[in-house]
């Protein structure tokens, strides 16, 4: 399944925050589907 970032931002404009492109892909995957988690590290 392909995800278009601009469409997601348009559809969920009230609940989406876009971050600066500071992330690097280490997994080699172009897209991902499924449950997603985030962790706050100290």
What are the key terms here?
Ribonuclease activity regulator protein RraA; 0% strand
Structural commentary:
The chain is an all-alpha fold. It has one helix at 5-11. The mean pLDDT is 77.
Q: How would you sum up the global shape?
A: extended
Q: How many beta-strand segments?
A: 0
Number of helices: 1
Reported for the largest beta sheet, the result is: none
Instruction: Give helix % range.
Output: 10-25%
Secondary structure elements and pairings:
Layout: H1 5-11
Protein name: Ribonuclease activity regulator protein RraA
In a few lines, what is going on in this structure?
By secondary structure, this protein is mainly α. Helices cover 17% and strands 0% of the residues.
């Amino acid at each position: 399944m392909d995800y278009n970032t601009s469409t997601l931002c348009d559809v969920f404009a009230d609940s989406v925050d876009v971050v600066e492109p500071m992330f690097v892909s280490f997994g080699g995957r172009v897209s991902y589907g499924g449950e997603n988690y985030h962790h706050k590290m100290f």
